[in-house]
Amino acid sequence: MKNDIEKIVELALSEDIGQGDVSSGLIDDKIVEAEIICRDDAVICGVEFFNLCFLSLDPKIEIHWNVEDGSRVKSGDKICRLKGNTRTIVTAERAALNFLQILSATATQTNYIVSLINSTNAKLLDTRKTIPGLRKAQKYAVKCGGGVNHRMGLYDCIMLKENHILSIGSLEQLIKNAINQFPKTPIIVEVESLKELRSALLMKGIKRILCDNFSLKDLREAVKISEGICPLEASGGISEINIMDYARTGVDYISIGSITKDIKSIDLSLRFCS
User: Fold this and answer.
1) Can you point out the beta strands (E) in the chain?
2) Which residues, listed in sequence order, are joined to residue 82 by a DSSP beta bridge?
3) What is the C-alpha to C-alpha distance for residues 183 and 178, in angstroms, rounded to an integer?
């Protein structure tokens, strides 16, 4: 992931700095200390992204953390201290805080949802509904928050949905094609009814079945008929309000897109020390 972080940070700095930071050129060029203060209760994530934003501009900057990725902090906590060139700190500040705020928000939201279903056996999955360019970063943040990663992209898992099946005309044939062409790639099949679920349970080679927009009643029945045959994932129409109801059905996994796309950035501030 290191190379990915370097590419993402380089892009973030490039789009912000452009041909040069005209504002920082107006201030004194001296060595100062600064600290990062968290204004929300949060689960921190994005330390490496934050560090690289500063170190890319000045390898001599000193960064000392009081926490690490996955740490829980309270509002008012001082989580990091920096020492370095004034202009460099001011120039890298926004990009560094953006990463830390967004990834900490993802980890925090994930951790909250996970806490709601901790008393059940259901595991929380993320989705591909991520901020463009931050797929791996947000997936990492989900893990820091206690969630489990779904497929990373279209390349590491075969997921067969209604349109895939309609294009071939047969789920059985589609699975055969998948196994023949990608024998080591896991297969997930999405179903929209108990009838489709029963058909999928007859197929061999399926890693998991996704029950899309099932009612609680149908999902309970789905759990009963699939027990010991194939793990089930529930998705669609699930939020923090009703997730416990779905978890209590006995389903193995619950996937929610909101933990990566409907997030509120964690409030962080950088202040020079007097």
Assistant:
1) 31-38, 42-43, 62-65, 72-73, 78-85, 123-125, 158-160, 187-191, 208-212, 232-235, 253-255, 268-272
2) 34, 63
3) 7
Same domain membership, residue 228 and residue 122: yes
For residue 166, give both structure tokens.
């309609």
Which residues are known catalytic residues? 94, 129, 161, 190, 212
Residues 92 and 138 in one domain: no
Note the pTM of the prediction, 2 decimals. 0.93
Per-residue pLDDT of the chain (274 residues; tens, 9 = 90+): 778 899 999 999 999 999 888 887 777 788 999 999 999 999 999 999 999 999 999 999 999 999 999 999 999 999 999 999 999 999 999 999 999 999 999 999 999 999 999 999 999 999 999 999 999 999 999 999 999 999 999 999 999 998 888 888 888 889 999 999 999 999 999 999 999 999 999 999 999 999 999 999 999 999 999 999 999 999 999 999 999 999 999 999 999 999 999 999 999 999 998 7
Do residues 25 and 126 both lie within one domain? no
230, with CB counted inside 10 A (0-12, 13-18, 19+), is middle
**How many domains does the structure of the chain reveal?**
2
Q: CATH no. for residue 93? A: 3.90.1170.20
Same domain (yes/no): 9, 135 = no
Q: Which residues of 236-253 are buried (b: 16+ CB within 10 A; e: fewer)?
A: eebeeeebeebbebbbbb
Same domain? For 225 and 125 the reply is: yes
